[in-house]
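Students often ask why inverse folding is considered easier than folding. One informal answer: many sequences map to the same fold, so there is more than one right answer. In these notes we will look at a single instance of the problem. The structure comes first.
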């Protein structure tokens, strides 16, 4: 039996995890990063447009370290919060193959590889794990 290559929607009508996004739905036709405005605009092959605030993408960084920090529910991390620390900004970006975008942040963080399926999932209102 051939594989079903369509996105697997949840009851809300959108994929329930980013890995269920059909790769064909997550192919950019055009990408534009505006460093001065800290935005990423993706025009998808299907004609839809998505605009991302880069600060929001940092909060949804898919790297292992950031995912662990988001999952940590212990009260200790609150002791490490520096409220005077500036929010990191994107200083550069590069394509990773034909499937992802790597963002480099002003604090040196560059481990997050933003798979286009993940970005399409976020654009559709999906919540990261």
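Output (designed amino acids):
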């Amino acid at each position: 039996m051939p594989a079903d290559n369509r996105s697997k929607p949840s009851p809300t009508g959108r994929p329930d995890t980013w890995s269920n996004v059909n790769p064909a739905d997550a192919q950019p036709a055009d990408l534009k990063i505006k460093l001065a405005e800290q935005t990423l605009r993706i025009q998808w092959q299907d004609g839809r447009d998505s605009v991302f605030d880069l600060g929001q993408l940092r909060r949804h960084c898919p790297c292992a370290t950031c995912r662990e920090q988001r999952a940590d529910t212990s009260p200790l991390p609150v002791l490490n919060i520096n409220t005077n620390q500036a929010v990191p900004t994107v200083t550069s970006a590069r394509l990773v193959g034909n499937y992802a975008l790597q963002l480099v942040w002003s604090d040196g963080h560059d481990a997050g590889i933003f798979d286009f399926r993940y970005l399409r999932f976020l654009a559709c209102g999906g919540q990261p794990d």
